[in-house]
Amino acid sequence: MILTRRAFTAALSLTGLAALAGFSPLRLIADALAQGATAADVAKPVSLPDMAIGAKDAPVTITEYASMTCPHCAAFNEKVFPQIKSEYIDTNKIRYVFREFPLDIKAAAGSMLARCIAKDDGAKYFAVIDLLFKQQNEWAMKNTAETLTRIGKQAGLSQSQVEDCLKDQALLDKIAADQKFAAEVLKVNSTPTFFINGEILKGEQTFEEFSKRINALLKS
């Protein structure tokens, strides 16, 4: 299901967030006829600018597609990503790109808030999504409006700015367009999904699996 203006407004207005609990997950387009993705397809942003950390000229780029309400994504963020960051991102060996693939309306709300808080600051964006993943059980399962508003205010947004962000149809449309591209062209159909220099890797993976693939690319 593509998020429409009416469904989105009903679900995400801060006076009607109770509707979120019954909102159906986004339906992926399973019958897409697009040809196989290439590394170039993965590399180019579609509607929204990429949020990335690490050296722009790093020899390896990892692109992650994740949903902010996905427990496997949260587990990866907690257990594996810090090791990747320490070993490879902070040492300028890889560039890491995070792209939104919301599986439900709450995930879309979290992604939108992260975008509004960070603007074009990749490091700030990663800090926000880290916080959202760590508090996933609180805002994704209950107290959605209250928790997202609190996080927004802690990051310097006013109440009205949080409300405007979560009602921003143009931003939602761009997230939906990027998700559609990922589903149709890149064949992303679950989260987390990773691309390492264009090669797809699906599901929550160990650090050892990433390390093996990254090291092989660094040696080539």
Q: What do these coordinates show?
A:
The protein is an alpha+beta fold and 220 residues long. The chain has a single domain, classed as Glutaredoxin, CATH 3.40.30.10. It is 50% helix and 11% strand. It is built from eleven helices and five strands, in the order ααββααβααααααββα. The protein has a five-stranded mixed sheet. α5 (105-118) packs antiparallel against α6 and α8 crosses α9.
List the helices and strands and how they pair.
Layout: H1 5-12, H2 39-43, E1 51-53, E2 60-66, H3 71-79, H4 81-89, E3 94-100, H5 105-118, H6 122-134, H7 136-139, H8 144-154, H9 159-166, H10 169-184, E4 193-196, E5 199-202, H11 207-219
Parallel strand pairs: 2-3
Antiparallel strand pairs: 1-3, 2-4, 4-5
Helix pairs in contact: 5-6, 8-9
Nutshell version of this structure?
By secondary structure, the chain is α+β, with helices and mostly antiparallel strands.
Gross CATH architecture: 3-Layer(aba) Sandwich
Strands ordered across the widest β-sheet: 1-3-2-4-5
**Unreliable runs, pLDDT <50, ≥5 residues?**
10-35
Total E-strand runs: 5
Please state the average pLDDT score: 87
Overall number of domains:
1
Note the main attributes of this structure.
single chain; 220 residues; globular; 11% strand; alpha+beta; Glutaredoxin
